[in-house]
Fold:
Amino acid sequence: QVQLVESGGGLVQPGGSLKLSCAASGSVSMIYTMGWYRQTPGTQRELVADITITDMKKYADSVKGRFTISRDYVKKMLYLRMNNLKPEDTAVYYCTANTVIPPRDFWGQGTQVTVSS
Structure:
C-alpha cells in the first residue's frame, strides 16, 4: 500500500505561481511512476505531468514550459512547480503513484488550485 497526501493548493492570480507537494508513505520502494492529474467538474481527470524512477518526465502540452515536476527520493516527496498560471489551470490536482509489482495505482485526496483575479 502507498499513501499520498497533497498540499500547496490555493487561490492565485493569473500569472502567479504555486508549488504543489505530495508526501508518499508506505511501500514507496515499489513505486515506479509518480505524477499529477487534474480534474474540473464534469470532466475526466487529465494527466498534467509524470516522472518515472529513471527520471523520465512527461508533460501535457498545455503546461509545457510553465510547470515542472520533480521527485525527492530521500524525502519521499513529489512536487509540481506551476508558473505563469492561467484561469484554465483551475482544477483539483491529484497526486498519483504507480507500482509495477503488483500493478496498482494509488491516488491522493486532491488539492484545489484556483486561478482567478
In short: The chain has a mean pLDDT of 95. The first strand starts at residue 2 and ends at 7.
